[in-house]
Amino acid sequence: MELTEQQMDRYSRHIILEQVGGLGQEKLLASRVLIVGAGGLGAPAAVYLAAAGIGTIGVVDSDKVDLSNLQRQIIHHTPDIGEYKVVSAERKIRAINPDTKVRTYRQRAMADNIRDIIREYDFVIDGTDNFPAKFLINDACYFEKIPFSHAGILQFEGQLITVLPGQTTCYRCIFSSPPPANAVPSCSQAGVLGVLAGVIGSLQATEAIKYLLGIGKLLTSTLLTYNALTMEFRKVQLNRKPNCPLCSENPQIIELKDEKQIMCDLKNCKC
Amino acid sequence: MNLVVNGKKTNITDRLTVSQLLLEENVKMPQMVSVELNGQILRRSDFEQTILKEDDKVEFLYFMGGGNGAD
After folding, report:
1. Which residue among A105, A118, B27, B36 is least enclosed by CB atoms within 10 Å?
2. CA dist., res. A203 & res. A82, Å (int)
3. CA distance B31 to chain A (A)
4. Among partner residues B7, B40, B65, which is closest to A234 by beta-carbon distance?
5. 3-class SS at A31?
6. What sign does the dihedral A51-A56-A59-A65 (CA atoms) show?
7. Which CATH class is domain A19-268?
8. In whole angstroms, what separates CA A199 from the centre of its chain?
9. Which residues of chain B does A41 touch, with a Cβ-Cβ cutoff of 8 Å?
10. Residues of B with CB below 8 A from A137's CB?
11. Cβ neighbours of residue A82 under 8 Å, at least 6 residues apart?
12. C-alpha A76: how far from chain center
């Protein structure tokens, strides 16, 4: 695929980078990234990946835009309230970059649909907000051998790790299973600094681009944690767990299943 | 004795177990924490029996679920 004159101009700041160049940009234009969750993390990731000229961006989300989302979900704007997030996200991605094709999946990621979706992509960004979905993405990416970026945010702290399934530490190496129901913080304890989602989601997009270009050192077998209050970034090296229930030699998980949702459903929570 | 907990030198009572360290470090919801000891992620069922030694490196890894719409 030859870059057009317009593309040479649009991506000139990429092309000038030795590690990207015209060939790297062509790679990005031929790449497919799936974003699961068009929320706090997925929004900045989608915006930067669209701007970067990722050829196809898939967006999975079943929710509609709510007023309380706008504090951090920067792909959705005030006039989008009440619209499905995938529709709102698709419109913004197209406006940012007509080179990017958008595929939308207006559904929740579940064990019975996720594998068919993710196998169409080169890299997956986990921008979901609940533990069952995070475990599901980890497991599905393991079974399909698709690399992904896991991230989570809470209040002023965030964390992320890139997983090359079967090769590097997976989410289940770190956390075998979702936390028990009685450990879940109450709704009133939750909350998140909006820009924190922007920082972490942008880091996820960075990992996707590095993976697609084959440049730099990926954040594999290493959890990056970020505290917005202290401005501390820490990298914690995490080796694969020899008895990981999923990616070890003797796994207990041999097929994809949905974990039970034990987080309170904040959407319907009145606290 | 001295330990390194999440990158910071910490002085603790001798011969604490991982479970006791979680208490001593005021971890409010130990069920939300995974523990890495000297590069190995521990099984939760080993927290009670695992006794910490001088200069051990401990990482508390917290579950963070947020990211999308509801959080």
Report:
1. B27
2. 28
3. 6
4. B7
5. coil
6. positive
7. alpha beta
8. 13
9. 67-68
10. none
11. A64, A65
12. 17
Would you say A17 and A106 are in contact if contact means Cβ atoms under 8 Å apart?
Answer: no
Q: pLDDT of A153-175, one tens digit each?
A: 999 999 999 999 999 999 999 99
Q: Residue A201: its chain B contacts at CB < 8 A?
A: 67
All residues of chain B having their beta carbon less than 8 Å from the beta carbon of residue A243 are 43
* C-alpha closest to that of A261 among A172, A181, A183, A173: A181
C-alpha closest to that of A38 among A8, A12, A66: A66
For B59, the closest chain A residue by CA position comes to A236
- Spell out the domain ranges in chain A: 19-268
- Interchain contact, B64 vs A41, CB within 8 Å: no
Q: Do residue A179 and residue B31 have CB atoms under 8 angstroms apart? A: yes
Neighbours of A6 (CB within 10 A): 10
B15: left (phi over 0), alpha (psi -120 to 50) or beta: left
pLDDT tens-digit map of A31-52: 999 999 999 999 999 999 999 9
- Chain B interface mutation, best of A188, A241, A265, A271, highest count of B Cβ atoms under 10 Å: A241
The pTM (predicted TM-score) of the whole model is 0.92
Q: Which two tokens stand for residue A236?
A: 């914690």
Pairing mode of beta strands B2-5, B57-62: parallel
What residues in chain B have their Cβ under 8 A from chain A's Cβ atoms?
A: 6-7, 29, 31-32, 34, 36, 39-41, 43-44, 59, 61-71
Amino acid type, B38: N
**Where do the domains of chain B lie, and which CATH numbers do they carry?**
2-62 (3.10.20.30)
Question: How many C-beta neighbours within 10 Å does residue A250 have?
Answer: 8
Share of chain B above pLDDT 90, in %: 69
Establish whether this prediction's ipTM goes over 0.90: no
Q: Residue A263 is which amino acid? A: M
Residue B31 CA to residue A179 CA, distance in Å, equals 6
